[in-house]
Every structure is written in C-alpha cells, then in structure tokens.
C-alpha cells in the first residue's frame, strides 16, 4: 500500500532509492558510474567525441573556463508622458527580454511634431523613467522614429541587441511605421500593451473631475468614483464632446501585483521607514520624497490611502487613479520595498509594532493642514505681541 502510494508521486525516484539500497545493485551502479566517468575523462584527454548518452556536463573542477556571456541589452523608447503603471509594465516586460534595459525618452520637440505637446517636460519624464526599478540606463532626447543613423548608434555605441515596443501600432504622421527599420534588421521585439490605461485616458479623467468640481455634482462623482475604483469599462458622456471619456477598466490581479513586487521582506536588523499618502497621479515630486525617505533607512514601506480616505481628505473629485493603480505606480519605484494597499489615515501604535517601523516620515507639505493653521495662528499672536511692545521700528 505504502510503496504503491510512493510510486505514484515520484515512481522513478522511489524505485531508484529502493534499488540502490540492495548492496549488490549499489555496487553495480557505482561501478557503472565510475566506468562512464573514466570513459568520459579519457575522451576529453584524447579529443574524441562521446555518444550523447555518455556525455558529461561541463567540468566543475576547473577545466578550460567558459567565456562569460555578454549581457543582452534591450532598448525601449517612448514619450512616457504622465507616466502611469502601463508604462511601468511595458518597461518590466522589456527588461524581461534581456539583461539590461536602456530607455530612450523622446524629446519635447519630437513629441510635439508627432503627437502634439506633452503634458510633462523632458526633465520630469526622465526622472520618472529613471525611477522605475527595471531601468538600467536612460538616454535623453531620443528621436520619435528609429532612423538608420540612430539605429546604428544604438547597435554600435550602446551595444543594443533588440529594440522593443508595445503591440500597438506606432505610426508617423505620414502613416509609416516608426519601427520599420528595426523590424527589417530583425532586431525588433514586441511586448503586450497594458489595457485600460493611457495618458489620454488620464487627461480625460482629470477633465471629468474638473467639470464635476465646477458643477459641484458630488452625487455624480460618487458614481464616477465607484467606476474608477471598480474598473468598469463604460464610456461616460463628457457633456457634449463627441469623444466621451473612457473610465479605467483595469482589473487588478494578484499576478500583476506579484510581478511588480520585490518579493523580499526586511532583514532582521533593518531600519524600516514608513511614509504614507495618496500618491495619486504619481509624479517627480513623489519620486523625490520616496528617494529621500529611503535614504533614512534600509527598507521603505509605503502606505497607500484608500480611495475613500483620499476623497474625504482631498475632495470628492479625487483620487484620479484608483487604489490599485496608485499602488502599482508606487511599487514600480526603485526606492520602494513594500506597500500597504489601503493604509489607514492614522499611523497607529499597532501598525508600528506589527511592521516594526523605526521611523515615520512625512513631506513638508502636509495633507492635514490643521497643524499649519494652528502654527500660523501662534506665530501671528507672538508677532503681534512683539510689535505692540515696540515704540519705534529701527532701520528701513
Ligand atoms: N505602453 C504600454 N501600455 C500602455 C501605454 C504604453 O505598453 N497602456 C507602452 C508603449 O507601447 C510603448 C511604451 O509604453 O512601448 C511607451 O509608450 P509612449 O511612447 O509613452 O506612448 P503611448 O503608447 O502613446 O502611451 P500613452 O498612450 O499612455 O500616452
């Protein structure tokens, strides 16, 4: 009964253990192994080739050392305007196609000529791309189309093996393919575009929110908020414009979160830093505060507030990006080790103990402005007192 049960899971393994347990078979197996090893060594010495069944794996004892493989370098370019988790996912997939990822960030002028002016300028787009944990090098002012001259520069100066782009068509104003030359050279690879998010979508969401804020339509907003948060793919009429604005239809899966995670906890003596916030429309300012926070310790834990908390503290028209979208953008940042998806507004004693937090940090621009109001009132009162006691003012 037992042996049958064992045999079904790993028949070969169970059988081998049993066979070798019999002394005579063990000796035979040992002898045969020695014979094969001897024959192989002899073959290596006299330079004959062994039949495949008798070939050994590469020597482990210091034979001629194999030449180290050159890292495969891949190149992805893009505008990366209003950087979102779709861009991060593209960079993640591109990096997985090689060992080193070089990213070309298209110049403001080139974007203007090909798609219209970007919302974020080149230096901000550079900060955003460089902050993504899968990026190894960034090239500024990349051209929109891969010209012959630029392609040769990529191959010869940057040692690029493959040029990568999402599976959406990337056409120039004259209708031709921006990657035609790379495809012809056989050095083009494609990744899957992330559904449900684009810079245009985000601008649309922002416009919708501005419109709602100006009309004070908080009832409509809460339904809009629900659609953002739950990822319905409806089109919402944008009040007269023919296009309509597509609401996020991003469906967060556990696999996507795992793909974006570092998968490593803090070491036993790590100094854990905690910072929380909305991190809505993740931008260069967020990157900077996360970089500074990370410098204060060994492990950066970021608490992302729920959509409800953000609405309650920032106004009904926020957040623009839902909790899961915001979490992915933060997780993609190289300075972040882990996130709490839906952190409480208040950092409780319990949280500090549970996560072993050493230091809680906050930027100088606080979300809760009450303490600033109190501080300013105090300051004004003390200044008033000071000037009241003075009979004249010195200097100019
Ligand atoms: N990309 C993606 N998924 C998205 C958006 C972009 O995989 N949802 C990929 C693009 O295919 C490209 C790279 O990210 O390989 C950079 O994209 P970018 O040049 O910024 O252009 P767009 O595709 O226009 O991005 P968006 O529509 O968001 O502006």
UniProtKB/TrEMBL annotation:
Q: Which protein, by its recorded name, is this?
A: ethanolamine-phosphate cytidylyltransferase
Q: What GO cellular component entries does it have?
A: cytoplasm
| Domain (Cytidyltransferase-like) ranges | 75-204, 274-367
| Region described as Disordered: spans on this chain | 217-244
* Family statement drawn from the similarity comment of this UniProt entry: Belongs to the cytidylyltransferase family.
- Record-linked InterPro entries: CCT, Cyt_trans-like, Ect1/PCYT2, Rossmann-like_a/b/a_fold
Q: Enumerate the transmembrane spans.
A: 26-48
Its domain of life reads: Eukaryota
Q: Whose protein is this, by species?
A: Ananas comosus
Q: In which pathway does it act?
A: Phospholipid metabolism; phosphatidylethanolamine biosynthesis; phosphatidylethanolamine from ethanolamine: step 2/3; Lipid metabolism
Question: What EC class does the entry list?
Answer: transferase
List the GO molecular function terms.
Answer: ethanolamine-phosphate cytidylyltransferase activity
E.C. number: 2.7.7.14
Which PANTHER family does UniProt cross-reference here? Answer: ETHANOLAMINE-PHOSPHATE CYTIDYLYLTRANSFERASE
Record keywords: Lipid biosynthesis, Lipid metabolism, Membrane, Nucleotidyltransferase, Phospholipid biosynthesis, Phospholipid metabolism, Transferase, Transmembrane, Transmembrane helix
